[in-house]
Q: What sequence folds into this?
C-alpha cells in the first residue's frame, strides 16, 4: 500500500515539477506584465498547453496516461508535447519508491521525519536539475526555498531529536564542505569554471546531507558522473572544451546516491582500509 501511495504521489508531483520548471522560465519573460504574470503563478495558475496556451481539462492532466492517450500531442493545437513530461513523472515516482526501499535510517520519529523532508527535497532538486539542463541556470526561488527547509531540518535534528552540539558541528562542517570548494573555484576563476548558482547549490546540498563525510562523497560522485559524461562528448567532438556543461544535475545525482548509499559505502571503504 505504501508503494502504491508513493507511486501515485510521485507521478502527481512529477507533473508538478514539469509545470514548475516551465512556469518559472516563462515568468522571466513576462515579469511585471500583470495578468500574464498571474496566469503563470506556480500554485494559482491554470494548467495550459506550453505551445498554444489553451487551458487543459482534467482528462488532459493524468500523469503519463494522458500523454500516451494523446500520442504525445496537444488535443487543441496538435503540436508535439515533449517526452520530458512523462519521463519526469516516471522518474519522480521511481525515486520515491527507490528512496523508501533503500532508506538508510531506522523508521521512527527521526527517520520518518527526514524521509518526509527528503520527498520534498527530491521535488525541488529534480526541478533544479531539469531547469539547469534546459537553460543552464539554477533559479534562486527554488534554491532559497529548499535552503529554508534544510535549515528547518537542521534545527529539528539538533533540538527536537537531541543531536546536540555534535550534530550542529556536523551540519556546519557539511555546509562548509558542500559550498566551500565551489566558492574557491568560483573566486579563483572569476566565475569561468563554475557558476554562482553551483556555489549556492553546493551549500544547500551540504546543509541537506548534514554530514561532512557525505558532502565529500557527494562531490566525489558528482565529479565522477560529470567526467563520465563530458569526456566521451569531448572525445567525439560533440562539445568543445569551451562548451559549458551544467554541473547542477551531477551534484543532485551525487546527493541522491550519497543520501541513500553514501554512509554504507563509506563504512565499507573504511573497513577495507581498516580505518
A:
Amino acid at each position: 500500500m505504501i508503494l502504491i501511495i508513493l507511486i501515485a504521489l510521485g507521478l502527481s508531483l512529477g507533473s508538478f515539477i514539469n509545470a514548475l520548471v516551465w512556469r518559472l522560465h516563462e515568468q522571466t519573460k513576462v515579469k511585471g506584465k500583470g495578468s500574464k504574470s498571474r496566469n503563470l503563478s506556480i500554485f494559482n495558475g491554470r494548467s495550459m498547453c506550453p505551445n498554444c496556451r489553451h487551458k487543459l481539462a482534467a482528462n488532459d492532466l493524468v500523469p503519463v496516461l494522458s500523454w500516451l492517450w494523446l500520442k504525445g500531442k496537444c488535443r487543441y493545437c496538435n503540436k508535439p508535447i515533449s517526452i520530458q513530461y512523462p519521463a519526469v513523472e516516471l522518474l519522480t515516482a521511481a525515486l520515491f519508491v527507490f528512496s523508501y526501499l533503500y532508506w538508510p535510517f531506522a523508521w521512527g520519529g527521526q527517520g520518518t521525519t527526514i524521509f518526509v523532508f527528503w520527498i520534498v527535497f527530491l521535488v525541488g532538486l529534480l526541478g533544479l536539475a531539469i531547469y539547469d539542463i534546459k537553460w543552464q541556470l539554477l533559479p534562486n526561488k527554488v534554491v532559497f526555498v529548499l535552503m529554508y527547509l534544510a535549515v528547518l531540518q537542521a534545527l529539528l535534528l539538533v533540538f527536537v531529536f537531541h543531536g546536540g552540539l555534535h550534530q550542529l558541528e556536523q551540519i556546519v562542517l557539511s555546509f562548509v564542505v558542500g559550498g566551500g570548494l565551489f566558492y574557491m573555484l568560483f573566486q579563483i576563476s572569476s566565475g569561468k569554471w563554475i557558476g554562482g548558482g553551483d556555489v549556492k547549490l553546493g551549500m544547500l546540498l551540504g546543509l541537506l546531507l548534514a554530514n561532512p563525510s557525505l558532502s565529500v562523497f557527494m562531490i566525489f560522485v558528482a565529479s565522477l558522473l560529470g567526467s563520465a559524461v563530458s569526456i566521451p562528448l569531448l572525445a567525439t567532438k560533440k562539445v568543445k572544451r569551451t562548451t559549458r556543461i551544467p554541473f547542477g544535475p551531477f551534484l543532485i545525482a551525487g546527493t541522491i546516491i550519497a543520501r541513500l548509499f553514501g554512509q554504507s559505502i563509506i563504512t565499507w571503504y573504511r573497513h577495507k582500509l581498516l580505518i
The longest helix spans residues 109-135. The chain has ten helices and no strands. The two ends are 42 Å apart (CA to CA). Residues 10 and 92 are 5 Å apart (CA to CA).
